[in-house]
Amino acid sequence: MAYNNxxxxxxxxIYPGHRSQIEHRASIIKGWNIPPGSRVLxxxxxxxxxxxxxxxxxxxxxxxxxxxxxxxDYGSPTTLGEAQAHLSASxxxxxxxxxxxxxxxxxxxxxxxxKDLYTHVVLFHxxxxxxxxxxxxSLLRPLSAHLRPNASLCIAxxxxxxxxxxxxxxxxxxxxxxGMELAEGKDVMRNVKTVVGPAWIKEVAGTEGWVIxxxxxxxxxxxxxxxxxxxxxxxxxxxxxxxxxxxVEVVAGRDERLGAMLRGMRxxxxxxxxxxxxxxxxxxxxxxxxxxxxxxx
Length: 297
Description:
globular, 11 helices, 8-stranded mixed beta sheet, 40% helix, alpha/beta
């Protein structure tokens, strides 16, 4: 049975300026068929673009617990705290509980009441924020104690592929950001910290006992984001910028080979942008992979 006949116009009115983000998330969430009354754990909600769509999907008798370790003053021009307060004051606010905590710490204590168990766990564009790949399997291990029978693990992350040449700069920029994160260390707040792809996600999930739901059911797919989704332009613009260039030279002064690699990555991004009609304004967001898993019996 198909669920989630989501009203994009209504959601966009609740969250002005986020329409393309909402459209992108709604198109994937619809494929996960989250029924009304579901109890969802969202890991890494950020500013709530996915959270508001999930809140609409679960209906008035469902609920979303959104767990994020980031400080509430993180984000620009709107901070996480401001975004969360705005959504909490909306008609869908009562369906959302914001939890500022490390997800692993949050999951270390199983719920005392069965009604608090989750039907779905969602990670939507959050894996790249993890400061190491090992965080993902470590997160999966305690999940079972928090889930109802036949619960789903739903993941959406960038696919590291581009259907259009206009999205190639975004793929290259993501790798440049990850390289800079590695060079500078874990204490820097970046949008891209750990780059992982669909094959690795499925392999790790499988190792931890999760199996992908049949592709014929529409649960695993690669999605081309809407043209208005600006994520690609944001990441590419940062790599093009003077601050990133200066950071590269700082790294080069400390480690010649690492600096050369980052310099080459940045040049690759700049070259790819030159091949896009309209330059940076014409850059598109790379494809997104989405999959849903269930725990193997």
